[in-house]
Amino acid sequence: MDNETQMLIHAVKAIQYRFIKATNCSKEHFGEYKVGPHTRTPNEITNHIYDLVNKTACRIKEGHFNCPAPQLLDFSREKERLLSGLEELIYIINTSVMDFELWKKLLQGPVLDIATHIGQIAMLNGLHGNKIPGESYFDAILT
Fold first, then answer.
1. Rg, C-alpha atoms of the chain
2. pLDDT per residue as tens digits for the range 96-113
């Protein structure tokens, strides 16, 4: 496995880790929490993240982002589907051949977009009464 593939897989694993941390111990009804009329709920954000994961996998496998938008599920099932989708994306990255330009575009596009949305979820969880404890992500052990 080349260095670029290893780094992209590591980025996806870091996303998994941060998503789990951002949603851990969330309170009941967190998925429906809305801070304003023009904002998404954590449930909608998680659905969007899954859509990005799915589109990224589609781009790697089929060369395009044109895949149907996922149906919105309840928050618990959205979380499960996203974590499963991230595992599948890791497998696809690991078993595919990508040129360096595609690798860079996936990192700068959907992968970093996903990281941004996970930060939104963490912030919303704190606003909903479940402050996410700080930690050194530098020292985190990703499996």
1. 15
2. 999 999 999 999 999 999
User: d(Cα 74, Cα 30) in Å, to the nearest integer?
Assistant: 11
Task: Give the CATH H-level superfamily of domain 3-133.
Answer: dinb family like domain (1.20.120.450)
Burial class (CB in 10 A: 0-12, 13-18, 19+), 17: middle
Domain ranges of the chain: 3-133
> What secondary structure letter does DSSP report for 2?
-
Q: Is 14 exposed, middle or buried (0-12, 13-18, 19+ CB in 10 A)?
A: middle
User: DSSP string spanning 88-142?
Assistant: HHHHHHHT----HHHHHHHIIIIIHHHHHHHHHHHHHHHHTT-PPPP--GGG---
